[in-house]
Amino acid sequence: MRKLGLLSKAYLVIVFFILYAPIFYLIYYSFNSGGNMSGFESFTLDYYRDLTENTRLIIIVINTLIIALLSAVISTILGVFGALAIVEVKRNRMKSTLLALNNVLIVSPDVIIGASFLILFTIVGIQLGFTSVLLSHVAFCIPIVVIMVLPKLQEMSPSLVDAARDLGATKRDVLMKVIIPYISPGIFAGFFMALTYSLDDFAVTFFVTGNGFSTLAVEIYSMARMGISLEINALTTIIFIITVIVVLAVYIFTRDKRKKGGTVRS
Predict the structure, then answer these.
(1) d(CA 153, CA 179)
(2) What is the predicted pLDDT for the residue at 253?
(3) Rounded-to-integer distance, Cα 163 and Cα 153, Å
């Protein structure tokens, strides 16, 4: 057993090293005055200074955040109502069909989804840019929200809804005061998953973005094609640090909430 435990720990160390080594490699060379990643010459913050003066990149970062937040909010609202509609379906065959159609959108290659949206927007006459990117992000985030919300809806006892109706609650009261609070963990999980997918997406966005609009993933790809600039390293470092801070904050908040909940129960 002890040997098995050591092997599992060694396996975890190797996995985390493979995952994090490239990130720390980028961070390390973001402070290199040599201008490349072939050898470290001396420490500098020039690339971070250049990053703050790069107005185009700052605007693209803001655009990316706006797209991610809007698509996450819209897809969460639509995804919750979609999950509610699926649960209300009585026929098992119809319910299975709807779930299968939802899952197909999740597992479909991004290239196919991006090309489909490009053809659709071209036929409909929607100009490629902010609107096309937002619509495509909302579309591929909705199935993710549905998948995150459905388990909470399925585990909710029907007696809760029946009890609320017996007490005189309207349909709106049942939805807002019983169902939504109960499935709120799934809603928050779906929201953050949609936010993450929107921020990370490259393939779909690459197809539907226009000349006057770009997101961070597409811009970094374009910058890398023209030659490696250590501004990318600096930007990667800042994004990584912000991500770590957010994750730690959420972890501390949820841990404290669980402790308080345990204290109240006891």
Answers:
(1) 8
(2) 77
(3) 16
Contact, 98 vs 89, CB < 8 A?
yes
Q: In the 8-state DSSP scheme, what is residue 167?
A: T
Q: What is the pLDDT of residues 67-118, one digit of tens each?
A: 999 999 999 999 999 999 998 888 888 888 888 888 888 888 888 999 999 9
% helix, strand, coil for the chain, step of 5: 80, 0, 15
Phi, then psi, of 235 in degrees rounded to 5: -65, -40
Dump pLDDT digits (tens) for 122-142.
999 988 999 999 999 999 999
| Tokens coding 163 | 């009890």
Distance CA 174, CA 169 (A): 6
CA torsion through residues 106, 111, 116, 117, sign = positive
pLDDT at residue 265, rounded to an integer = 45
The SS3 of residue 65 is helix
Domains of the chain: 6-251 (1.10.3720.10)
The string over 218-242, giving b where at least 16 C-beta atoms fall within 10 Å of a residue's C-beta and e elsewhere, is bbbeeeeeeeebbbbbbbbbeeeee
Report the alpha-carbon distance of residue 153 to residue 151 in Å, rounded: 5
Q: Residue 165: its pLDDT value, please?
A: 81
